[in-house]
Amino acid sequence: MAKGDGNQSVIGVKYWELIADNLSKAGWSWGCVATVDRDGGTLWIADAHRDDGKRFVVRADEKLTVFVELESAIRASVRKIKSAYTG
What we know:
Elements: E1 9-10, E2 13-14, H1 15-25, E3 29-36, E4 42-49, E5 55-60, H2 63-86
Antiparallel strand pairs: 1-2, 3-4, 4-5
Helix pairs in contact: 1-2
């Protein structure tokens, strides 16, 4: 996979768009911004939140990576909650 802004795609759909769509379908509101760090590199920041108060914020140097990390953080939290209830 090529490095860059997350433009890797499957049949014209970018992978980060698939993740974002899945987050939306699961009830998450999300946002993503790019900024320049002090060394001149691009820094991507994404967040997701729901009405139940859950909120996640992640940062990465690639757009695709920031969405993968966001999805991973949410999944890990959900697994932790489920295991707490199932013992």
